[in-house]
Amino acid sequence: MMEHVPCNLCGADDADVVYPSTLKQGGDWRAFRCTHSGYGTHPPIVKCRRCGLVYTDPRPDGHDILETYEAVEDPLYIEEREGRVLTFEHHLKPLERLTGPPKGRPLLDVGAYTGVFVEIATQHGWHAWGLEPSSWAVAEARSRGLTMVQGTLDSAELAEGRFDVVTMWDVIEHLTDPQSAIREAHRILAPGGLLVVHTIDIDSLFARLMVPRWPWLMEMHIYYFSRRTLRRMLEACGFEVLSDRPQGRYLRLGYLMNRVGAVVPVVGRPAEWAVSKLGLRGAAVPVNLGDLFTAYARKC
Ligand SMILES: [Zn+2]
Questions:
Q1: 58 preceded by cis ω (within 30°)?
Q2: Ligand 1 centroid, distance to 133 Cα (angstroms)
Q3: Which of 109, 213, 214, 231 has the fewest CB atoms nearer than 10 Å to its CB?
């Protein structure tokens, strides 16, 4: 079932279509199971005329979306683990500059999936928990000894003031009601606690140059924040935004060359060989097109 929704930031029902639907036959959300497909296909994307929030409307209803996430199974994601480990290692540095040393304090990773960030945060000295709707991903994380709660911020009923840090890595753009998720994060944070939100930036230069072919326009993304609209929402929910700078990701050079080789073999194959020969396969390469950013916000 498709549903029509008002603006999640200002509540207005006054939006213009900015990117028309690219779905064939109206789309088949049920057929969509994998995090890797679906680039470039999306329902109509609209922009609120009052506040500028960009979102998908109409969209599959919240129940269908949650069912889809509960059923996600994606073994390919585990193969990409290395790049995610590197990215999260780098994301922890600016986080800990704001929080100080972890010292066993409680941290909740929302949408933790298979628990890569939970594991790294634990190694760094956080008492890290993951919250995740997919039962497959929760089982995967638990098999590595991680503390996981199956569910969503809505369903988990976590204790008020329970956590010093709540993180949302590439999650908020998938939520049906990001404002209520941010309010719930505020409730479960201790006074002065830190909320970290990493998402795509629809107002970034790269996005503006690329649209309508910006690869992040896709069916699984239902909110397209900018630094401005996310800041407004965080402030409306009782947070002070400390910073919201672009933050990219890290890949191993060997993996990157392998990907280049898959697209342009004439360049990628010799480059992959050279990288191996030089012993650089494991080198970390930052990839930052400026279209991903991280907001760090303190509970007031
Ligand atoms: Zn609005």
A1: yes
A2: 28
A3: 213
